[in-house]
Amino acid sequence: MALYIKAAEILQKAEMKQGALKTLVYDSKFPSIKQLFALVCETQKFSSILQEIIESTKLLKHTKLKMTLAKVLVYDLLIGQGLKCGGTWKAKMMKHRPRLQAELARMKVRRKVSRNEDLLPASAQQTPGDQLPRYVRMNTLKTSVEDAVDYLKRDGFSYLGQALKLDNLTLKNKDFVMDLHLPELLVFSPKTEFHDHFLYKAGHIILQDKASCLPAYLLDPPPGSHVIDACAAPGNKTSHLAAIMKNRGRLFAFDLDGKRLATMSTLLLRAGVTCHQLANQDFLKVDTNGPQYKDVEYILLDPSCSGSGMVCLRDDSAAHPEEEKARLASLASFQLKCLNHSLRFPRLKRLVYSTCSIHSQENEEVIAACLQQNPNFRYLLCKCTSFLDSCQNNVPFHMLSQCHPHSICLFFSALFTFYLHFSFNLCVFDQFLCEKSSWDR
Ligand SMILES: C[S@@+](CC[C@H](N)C(=O)[O-])C[C@H]1O[C@@H](n2cnc3c(N)ncnc32)[C@H](O)[C@@H]1O
């Protein structure tokens, strides 16, 4: 029953806008995160249908259950894999099962559909998350791409070489390719499962979306450099930075949340990272003139954000507009403070700013305000064709830089997560590559 109680608690918090679904699941420290995550995502997807069934069968009145708990239980009873609890809860639900099933059947007849999935609005029947390939980053601190590919081939996967165009990322069964842009990234068919795989458990591979790989890739700190990961937990980007630095140099990683930092410590240990120094500290209170940071030239800033760009976690339930506005304003203010603070490190050369938000308040507007307050940064505007606007309009994409004397570059890599799979971002990404190759370090 613990699974259902925890899932209901998370859905309740998400409804009250107390955090993004993924963060709430992650922070719950539930022993089976994957199972919990699947249950909350699916229950949320079917939420309106479950609510209709619960209301028309008067389940809450009969069982004294709260709505969110009723939803997760009814989801598993009618749509999921069957109830995974015993005792009085199961007995209670089983007693009402015939009426619940009958209501679901009536609903399907009314809507002239045969499958549960068909009850969902067209937009929800297949989420973008269902179509996205599974990206896996090779942890070059522990393995090489060649060795990992060989291992996977021996394990029954079929390697199709490097992807040359977007279409090559539409993969089936056990086929996999090397990513178009990042050679350390292998791409598998959607939902390919690696959590129990030896390579994952041994820290040879990291399950990390392409969007999440871009910030460290763009920051590109050389081995031996001094780097800050300002808001670091749970640490996938930190481990990526360490791999790029070949574990040489100093990697200062901060996070305010002790629990997330503890998880991060385990992750870094498994990934073989040794050049890091973790601090459970408010990044905004880090002394930018501290002697230990005097050689910091690279900063990765991935601050807390609304998470509105996370494909499989998008929560489209109507938020109260005023509350949503206030929440975004507060996040944007924090993000701007972090940016301004980062720019105070005396030897800073390059900074990557990333969010997984699709809100301009957390992206363009933060960057614009930062520019205004730091006039020594130059502004470059990249134009690219937008998939989102039916490939018609040019969407401005912002990149800030100050080339002399210390070639400071500030990237705005937001939007990547949400739209990653579509040509929009790959197009933007190409622009980055062009710019990147022409930088003078
Ligand atoms: C988007 S997450 C970072 C994800 C991480 N970069 C990764 O790739 O795994 C944002 C993190 O910022 C942390 N955070 C929030 N406020 C902070 C602050 N003032 N100082 C340091 N960390 C903070 C949160 O605890 C959270 O772990």
TrEMBL record:
It holds the Pfam family NSUN5_fdxn-like. InterPro entries: MeTrfase_RsmB-F_NOP2_cat, MeTrfase_RsmB-F_NOP2_dom, NSUN5_7_fdxn-like, NSUN5_RCM1_N, RCMT, SAM-dependent_MTases_sf. SUPFAM superfamilies: S-adenosyl-L-methionine-dependent methyltransferases. The active site is at C356 (nucleophile). It comes from the Eukaryota. Residues 124-423 form the SAM-dependent MTase RsmB/NOP-type domain. The lineage of its organism: Eukaryota, Metazoa, Chordata, Craniata, Vertebrata. Keywords: Membrane, Methyltransferase, RNA-binding, S-adenosyl-L-methionine, Transferase, Transmembrane, Transmembrane helix. It comes from Xenotaenia resolanae. Belongs to the class I-like SAM-binding methyltransferase superfamily. RsmB/NOP family. The chain crosses the membrane at residues 410-433. S-adenosyl-L-methionine binds at C231, A232, A233, P234, G235, N236, K237, D255, D282, D302. The keyword RNA-binding applies. This is SAM-dependent MTase RsmB/NOP-type domain-containing protein.
